[in-house]
Write a structure and sequence with these properties.
elongated; 7 helices; 9-stranded mixed sheet
Amino acid sequence: MLTQEKNTFKDEPVRLNKFLSDAGYCSRREADRLIEAGRITVDGQKAAVGMKISPSQIVRVDGEVVERENERVLLSFHKPRGVVCTTDTTWGDTTIYDLIDYPKRVFSAGRLDKDSEGLLLMTNDGDLVNKIMRAANYHEKEYLVSVDREIRPDFLQNLSEGVYLKELNIRTRPCEVFSVDRFRFRIILTQGLNRQIRRMCDAFGYRVTRLIRVRVMNVELGNLKPGAYRPLTTEEAAGLLDQVSRQ
């Protein structure tokens, strides 16, 4: 909550972006963006990327004091198409934070691009976000993908073996791919490269017409409507935390 004038956290200095993440305010990446935009101050002075802060210092974002959250929040949210996963409103986009009316500040564990839709995990636990997003942990994310022309078997085989993405100068990891019908397939990734599935399809002359994330680790999108969210069930939360605790 943003009500007190003193921050409480460990005695040793910590990086500002980590503090904001641990406080449940935003991810470390988003914190660096806010710092670069000049929206964060420490003891009344504009913050700098990479700086460390001590327990006695007061951090504000847009003038509001930030303190650490105590109770972990875990939500499943269905991001609609056309909505962005950022706090940046420069271009007038609708953000996921415009749609989520939750009493505590939460942020997404991972992203979906503006044209994609489906499951986002939302939480106020910065450490959990980092563990879920860390590619080295090989956490699964499953997508239902529609393309603009009939799917050939060799196309799915090529996707499953890994694809060299020239723009990123990287080969994607081998993955599981399953045919659904003539124009749709399911794919399970353990990476989160920028517009990865769209780039993979483009490499073979296919254009993605719809992309829905239907699962993150053990949590499924199910029948959740676009723009709606729900708390994770006890079983979902326990399964999620069990998976990240193994790293």
